[in-house]
Amino acid sequence: MGSLFAWSEDDSDASLAWITKPPKALDRQDWKVATGYPSTSWFPADVTFDLARDKGDKLADAIPTAIYLLVLSEKLAGLLARESAARWETFPIKLKHNKKVLEPRYVVANLLDVSPCVDLEKSAFERSQVIPAEIDFFDRLVIDPSKVPADRKIFRMKEQPRTILVRDDLVAAIRAAGCTGLSFVPAEQIGPGFR
Hints:
Helices cover 12% and strands 32% of the residues. By secondary structure, the chain is mainly beta. The chain has 2 domains: 11-111, no CATH class; 114-189, no CATH class.
């Protein structure tokens, strides 16, 4: 197993457009896509996401969101479909900024692969009060490499499904393609600042 990195938003570029709330069309079901729950049966066919007015307007390959959804350009979604060997659902969406629908095509991508990977004995964390089997926040994350399947290049942590871990070779492919809007944090650095 190579090194693992947590998928994160690029919050260093203030010019980037962000999505800070889900559209009403998702009817409070966005958590399903944010945690890898199969969603083809309910995801609406024609959804428009509003870009935040108090953020930038530059579109990236991964639109940073405050709602844990992967909103990806066709370029990045295609790369992940080819290179990741993971199971995905993708849902075409529209983006709107200042009441104008934008031309570029984007998808909401739902990563379905989930793996347990946390060394619960060595990690320090707070369990979710809503779903006690899941972890809300880590003070210290220690990965147990023996739990991670060797063929996984990208997956959701079973212990915290909104967190996506990416193997170093896939990180390299994403960076080599020049994809923007995302950053990668070494998994062991997930802690109080990664919320």
